[in-house]
Amino acid sequence: MGKHSTTVARRAVLGLALAASLAALAPARAADLLADAKARGTLRIAMEGTYPPFNFKDPKTGQLSGYDVDVARLVAAKLGLKPEFVTTEWAAILAGLAAGKYDVIVSQVGITPRREQAFDFSRPYTYSFPQLIVRKNDRASYTSLNDLKGKKVGVGQGSVFEQQAKAVPGIEVKSYPAAPENLQDLAFGRIDAALNDSLMVAYLLKHSQLPIKAGARVGAPERMGIPFRKGNPQFKAALDKVLVDAAADGSLKALSLKWFGTDASRPAQ
């Protein structure tokens, strides 16, 4: 081997050694969430826990119950994982996901362009509409959010409904950390209307003792999905397959009928 070829060989060895050193110094890329969850054996699932009929604590048992809870259990079981539930206020729930405090949120998270910039989403598993809730004795007819200019409207803090109400100039928007306080203020006349999910409204009318009633649907259908941190393509594929299969075999429809009396697992015709 000549001098030139020896020098080239040494440089090649040095180059490989340098590359190896840099690789060792660089932080290792985290495993896909699917592999990480399977290594743990659990899927860490966040939800609000105060949002009937989607997710709430059953007053009789103290256990989490609702449509989202059933969907979350189904997803975890199909992925071969044990569900590990975390409840947190809605206003902080997306920040907690970004910080890695849990793996997913199953809590009626609307799929919006802004949220899709920060997180990946599963395919939608619920479709519903924004709907007004008003007092039973209110004779005013609010057919759109524009009719509520000059009025006080209660919404969930950090919700898509808050964004929709704030987008209409003239509405005084009051934000609440949870639904019960919002609806109590409505019943006591502290606000003029509440804006929430049409599926929740139907449930409330059936179970609430408050003097409230359903108002008009105001706006386009909402698509709800399961958000998780970006960069987990294997997890996304597995999660979407679970939801596709659950839609095909009627599992999602059955859960929807159980909680809402209607099939909210597909777009309204």
TrEMBL record:
InterPro entries, A to Z: SBP_3_CS, Solute-binding_3/MltF_N, TAT_signal
Stretches assigned to the Solute-binding protein family 3/N-terminal domain: 42-263
Keywords: Signal
Pfam families: SBP_bac_3
Signal peptide feature range: 1-30
Gene3D superfamilies named in the record: Periplasmic binding protein-like II
PROSITE patterns: SBP_BACTERIAL_3, TAT
SMART domains assigned: PBPb
Subcellular location(s) of the protein: Cell envelope
Homology family: Belongs to the bacterial solute-binding protein 3 family.
Protein name: Cystine ABC transporter substrate-binding protein
Organism: Massilia varians
